[in-house]
Write a structure and sequence with these properties.
- By secondary structure, this protein is α+β, with helices and mostly antiparallel strands.
- It has 12 helices and 18 strands.
- It has helices at about 25-35, 45-55, 105-120, 155-160, 165-175, 185-200, 210-220, 255-260, 260-275, 290-300, 330-335, 340-350, and strands at about 10, 15-20, 60, 65, 70-75, 80, 85-90, 100, 125-130, 140, 145-150, 180-185, 220-230, 230-240, 245-255, 280-290, 305, 310-315.
- The strands form 3 sheets. Strands 12-13-14-15-16-11-17 form a 7-stranded mixed β-sheet, sandwiched between helices. A 6-stranded mixed β-sheet has the order 3-6-7-9-18-10, with helices on both faces.
- The longest helix has 18 residues, at about 105-120.
- The protein is globular, with a radius of gyration of 21 Å.
């Protein structure tokens, strides 16, 4: 199969199917397809191409298949090259979901083949597809991650009753404490609490500029919910909206947040406001199995859904292991947790841009 280059097409023998590299002029067509495609997600939107290039400087390879002038399948890809963490082609870095989206089986297979060819041309260590369900059964696959998704009711009381009793009590404590939630675009406040939380986990934090770019690119489909107590900021989360779904994505709280159950209140407040807005699916996002965030989401009554991250190995002999559970990162994590927040904010972005 011939190479697929940006702005050029690949024609199958029958001249029916064409593969193209995504250009800015095609973003609206791409997004119209993604919005209508049942298996596509917020992370398939063309805006991520701009985010990855502007925020991190990563090279993107967004491909789509077309029949008769209509897009029938898409595959977002981005390349990450790092001396520390290797060279990879991923669909899609910094995102929970990715991979091919489309109902045309021939188009899907052609895009996967084109991605494998691109991976070989680039000489990457591996190609990673972040699928919600298995797509390439012959490829090595990780089952480290799960996602938590659930339908919510238009009635806030029904949603509150659906939370298991013990966790519901945490929400009520936050309400009784007089916590106040504010929905807007206060990224500076979000970054203050998010960077502290990420530092506490021993993970490098993104640059604040990344969060500003997300808001700029996705506009009304991206906002920030902050939680305060008597004027003091306790917690915050950036949320994405796609079709009838809400996805709380980058969030955290101060050390004082636990005392007031601010995180429990924050997610309840987001669920309540989302239901009023007509949102019907609450996507709690990805967690590693048997971690604190995994337990937290299960305590809300959400059932884990296994994610299928599949790998096409090029130069690598085995699947990558960038998990914080990897023993070789333990000393680094412990040292990072001891850094002052200000130092972590300055140093973190240099590493976080490669931790896709």
């Amino acid at each position: 199969m011939a190479s697929v280059l940006a702005g050029q097409s690949l024609v199958q023998d029958k001249g029916v199917l064409r593969l193209h590299g995504l250009e800015r002029l095609d973003h609206a067509r791409w997004d119209a397809f993604v919005t209508a495609c049942a298996e596509a997600s917020f992370f398939h939107l063309a805006g991520w191409q701009q985010v990855l290039e502007r925020a991190f400087g990563h090279r993107t390879h967004y491909l789509y298949a077309e029949r008769g002038g209509e897009i029938v399948a898409v595959l977002p890809l981005a390349e990450i090259r790092s001396l520390l963490f290797g060279h990879a082609l991923i669909s899609t870095p910094f995102c929970v979901y990715g991979g091919v989206a489309g109902e045309d089986s021939e188009a899907r297979e052609a895009l996967i083949e084109a991605a494998c060819e691109r991976a070989r041309e680039l000489g990457v260590d591996y190609l990673e597809m972040r699928n919600r369900r298995p797509v390439c059964p012959d490829w090595p696959r990780k089952d480290l991650y799960v996602t938590f998704r659930r339908e919510i009711s238009p009635d806030p009381e029904e949603n509150l009753k659906a939370i298991p009793r013990k966790q519901r009590a945490m929400v009520r404590k936050g309400i009784k404490a007089g916590l106040v939630g504010e929905l807007g675009c206060d990224i500076d406040a979000l970054y203050q609490v998010y960077s502290e939380s990420v530092r506490n986990l021993g993970t490098p934090v993104f640059a604040k500029r990344y969060l500003h770019i997300l808001k700029e690119v996705f506009g009304e489909d991206c906002n920030v919910l902050t939680v305060q107590h008597e004027g003091r900021l306790l917690a915050g989360v950036m949320n994405f909206y796609f079709r009838d779904e809400v996805l709380p994505y980058y969030g955290g709280g101060t050390s004082e947040a636990r005392r007031f159950k601010a995180n429990d209140f924050m997610y309840w407040e987001l669920m309540r406001r989302s239901a009023e807005r007509g949102i019907r699916v609450f996507d709690y996002g990805r967690s590693k199995k048997e971690t604190g965030s995994y337990a937290f989401k299960k305590n809300w009554g959400f059932e884990p859904e296994a994610l299928s991250y599949e790998y096409y190995l090029v130069k690598a002999r085995r699947m990558p292991d960038l998990s914080p559970k990897n023993p070789k990162y333990r000393l680094f994590i412990r040292a990072w947790q001891r850094l002052p927040v200000g130092v972590a904010q300055r140093l973190g972005p240099f590493l976080a841009r490669y931790l896709g």
